[in-house]
User: What shape does this take?
Amino acid sequence: MSRFREMIEMIRMALNAVRTHVLRSSLTILGIFIGVFSIIAVMTGIRVLQSNLESAMSGLGANTFQFQRSPAIHFDDIDWEKILRRRRFFAANMKRIQEKSTLAQAVSATASFGVGEASSKFARTNPNITGVGVTPDGFITQNWTVLDGRGFSEADDTSGRRVCVLGADLAEKLFPLGSPVGQSVKFCGISYNVIGLLARRGSLFGQSRDNFLAIPLGTALRLYGQSLSLSIQVQAPGRDTYQDVLEQARGAMRTMRRVEPGIEDDFEIVSNESSVGQFRDLTSAIRLGAAVISSIALLAAGIGIMNIMLVSVTERTREIGIRRAIGARKRSVMIQFVAEAILLSEIGGVLGVIAGIAFGNLICFLVQAPPVIPFDWAAIGLGICSAVGIIFGTYPAWKAANLDPIDSLRYE
Amino acid sequence: MSLIRIENLARHYVMGTETVHALRGVSLSIERGEYLAIMGPSGSGKSTLMNLLGCLDTPNEGVYELNGENVARMTDNELADIRNREIGFVFQSFNLLARSDALHNVELPLIYAGLPPKERRERARATLANVGLGDRMHHRPNELSGGQRQRVAIARALVNSPSIILADEPTGNLDSKTGVEILGLFEELSRRGNTIIVVTHEEEVALHSRRVIRIRDGLIAADEINREQRAVVGGAAVALSGITPLFIA
Ligand SMILES: Nc1ncnc2c1ncn2[C@@H]1O[C@H](COP(=O)(O)OP(=O)(O)O)[C@@H](O)[C@H]1O
Ligand SMILES: [Mg+2]
Assistant: This one.
């Protein structure tokens, strides 16, 4: 008997059997559904956050790390007092890193100097625009692309010129009709000449990363004082030199900040890689929790399937006898019942995968990220369901297949 | 070569400390195309013999050759295939799948034979039409009368063109008029060349066959040719004549 045709037939029979006991089947299906749903929803949610994160976590370029006071991602149990006691980074620190990091390709410093309202002669914004000071190499280390005009020169920085470049969203708002280059923008009461327009960077966790204005760091320090808190970015020429560059710069930073040997850094080093790694560590607890819940639910559901199948075998003893009498092999009976168990399990599994992906993607609205379909987890989920069906359906099916045909035919 | 040859067939059941000897050594030959009745009082071993002939059960002793092949030594799978291809069962209690319609019930043996859906549907339809149920294909067993159910069962037994049709008390659950109709159907099938073995404890039923084997206490008591067989004409039984003993144990 052709295997394929047999399978089709078995699935048809299984569907029939499941249909005749809708209520009983639904309860079992519900168990599987919960198990699959919980794992798929959590994995989808994490995947959404992660893909968003990986694309643009800290806004740093490739092979770039950043010195900063506080960690990029943190739990509640962070020691804020310790962090706040840390000394800030100053322009002199950057200069020193620049000198000592002989292996680095680019070293830059950035500092936010204010949040406020920006205006042009055409429009004005809400007071939610971030102003940052950036050294010329900041364009490289932060992966900024200048679409129109130019970036900052050394001269802009050292002589503190009142020039700025605009993020894409801000430029659109202030200059809806034409290029902003050559125009004037007023931010926190000071006018700047727009010399460049940056390419769009997109949003991260629901926040636009193009709603800002950048001025030379030298200008910012002059206007807002030397005490601005800096972050320092260092870019390595390539992946192979990254670790050396990092160690060199870190050593220089420790010396400068007089960190004794054997004492931990009094600063954080952040990179795209470390951010993603930290995110993974953070979510591993959630992942583990989801895996435990889903395992328990699937185990319970599996036992439910076994139970329902044993009842089904007893109820259908006569049917089994009839099938055996007209020529069904033991194997056919076995396949029929295993198929039924798999089908029960897979109905719950498919529903769980669909609902889990939908639910997990709800977080997309929160962070305004594109939805994610985790095909690998969907496949794993359905695979587990088949396994549950096979594992818990085999014993009842074996029992069915090995019933004595004559006794079964006499069964009332 | 005989269709069926059994020699010293014995079957006992062990129940705790007791052993029930259902068959104590039965020898018999059945030719292709015979219409045979197995008679005997309740508990005499008729069903046990039937189950052995139908390859649902294997003997403790003896030889059973079906089409020259020794069935007693076959594996479970081989027996299943023989039941599928060579045997058509008709039971007293019909034994149809309650949740399936007539057509699917008749199709079932063909499913296990591995026929493609289109072909098996066609054959099931034709067979159902042959037993006079062309207009009841999609009725479920509980929507059919007893006689109609037994016709569906007969169609299911016939659909694979088996070598033998085995009927265990096929009229036992039917009123006498419907019973006669079913016997008429068997006669018709016999005329068309089918081999039919009917188990019964009713003389009335045995009268329709051409050969009667009487069993008592697990042994053959008599094997007789029924010379003037009773025929069913127009749905009513007409008695013709008696039975001539052929062999008395
Ligand atoms: N599965 C079984 N287990 C134990 N005893 C059985 C079994 N099947 C039949 N018997 C016994 O074997 C004898 C013959 O039974 P059976 O062939 O069913 O008789 P009949 O069909 O002629 O009424 C009876 O005594 C019956 O009780
Ligand atoms: Mg009986």
